[in-house]
Design a protein that fits this description.
There is one protein chain. By secondary structure, this protein is an alpha+beta fold. It has two domains: about 5-95, Alpha-Beta Plaits; about 105-245, Alpha-Beta Plaits (2-Layer Sandwich), CATH 3.30.70.660. The protein has five helices and ten strands. Strands 1, 2, 3, 4, 5, 6, 7, 8, 9 and 10 form a ten-stranded mixed β-sheet that branches. Strand 2 and strand 3 form a beta hairpin. The longest helix is centred in the N-terminal third of the chain and has 13 residues, at about 25-40. It is globular and about 55 Å long.
């Protein structure tokens, strides 16, 4: 049966996240409902990974299987006419039989936005975390550099409801860049994969370092402890964006 790859963008402010959940409104549910309306059969779309409630996506990827071939441009237009304005399908293309949105992924990029001006820009309030205190950018950068490389990130992974976030917590972080932008900074994460709430937990810990509550040289100790309690609290979800998913 034909398989299709979808490139998806959404403002996660109003949703319980990507993944279907009981008694909540998810991005996955809305896309599946729209697909079922168009194709007149129950549909399932598999995402590259879950994003939490309030987290946004510029480049989420999903795949779905149909009983027969579809006109991708026509379905693309129809989907966007049925979906709420907060969700847009950017592209639909036919995918190889062995393609899997999650398991075929070789890497991802996430961005986390921090607004550092004393007064919050009202147009950024849903898309950046506003910090009320001063941030030592040099110390934050020093701490960020210590995350780069291959590590066991157990200390920065929350458990999911069904158990451990992953049997293997080893991931490779290719870069964690601190980029200045109007009003604040952007933390850019690029790696082979990310554990449940890993990015938000790292950001929360970096903010403690930048705020003087921790020292940058504590990061290797926290990593080696493999204990979630040793790291900082998760940063708020609304500053986080899934930007790109890589495939070989």
């Amino acid at each position: 049966m034909p398989k299709y790859k979808a490139l998806i963008s959404y403002d996660g402010s109003s949703f319980s996240g990507w993944q279907s959940q009981i008694n909540s409104l998810s991005v996955q549910d809305l896309i599946e409902k729209a697909l079922a309306t168009i194709l007149r059969v129950p549909m399932e779309i598999i995402g590259s990974g879950r994003t939490d409630a309030g987290v946004h996506a510029l480049g989420q990827v999903g795949h779905f299987i149909t009983e027969k071939e579809i006109e991708t441009e026509k379905v693309l237009y129809s989907l966007n006419s049925l979906l709420p304005k907060e969700i847009r399908i950017l592209d639909i293309s036919e995918a190889p039989e062995d393609f899997h949105a999650r398991y075929s992924a070789t890497g991802k990029i996430y961005h986390y936005h921090l607004h550092l001006d004393p007064i919050m820009d009202p147009f950024k309030r849903k898309y950046a975390l506003h910090l009320q205190h001063k941030l030592d950018i040099a110390e934050l950068k020093a701490a960020a550099s210590l995350f780069v490389g291959t590590h066991d990130f157990s200390s920065f992974a929350n458990q999911q409801s069904q158990g451990s976030a992953s049997l293997d917590a080893v991931r490779t972080l290719h870069r964690l860049d601190v980029i200045e932008q109007p009003g604040g900074i952007r933390l850019e994460f690029e790696g082979t994969g990310f554990l449940y709430k890993m990015v938000r937990n790292i950001v929360g810990t970096l903010l403690e370092v930048g705020g003087g509550k921790r020292l940058s040289h504590e990061i290797p100790y926290i990593l080696s402890a493999k204990d979630r309690k040793k790291a900082g609290r998760a940063a708020e979800p609304h500053g986080l964006f899934l930007v790109k998913v890589f495939y070989s």
